[in-house]
Amino acid sequence: HITVRGRPASSRRAPIMVCNHVSFVEPLFLAAWMEVSFVAAAENANSLLLRSIAKAHHVIPVNRRSSSSRSDVAEAIRSRAKSNAPWPPVCIFPEGTTTNGQALIQFKLGAFA
Question: Comparing C-alpha atoms, which of 14, 25, 21, 19 is closest to residue 99?
Fold first, then answer.
């Protein structure tokens, strides 16, 4: 069950969103509800099935095993947040996987390294 209250802030007011990731539904819901970009594991963003969707949503792919990729992602997020261009907000799921929602698990390195 998803309850929506209010409206999303503009990307100028809130250029970065950090969300808990309980199921595969959150990215689908957010993408349907508002224009949003995601930081996603490179293996997912570049998969045959998701490549076109990732490109359309301006996904920022991250190779979590690569410190240079993590640095590039952090710079891309900073750049979009400061840009006057009409970038959609960047959504980050810092746990990097779905959970049961009862407690947070350790955040993946991704954009937080």
Answer: 21
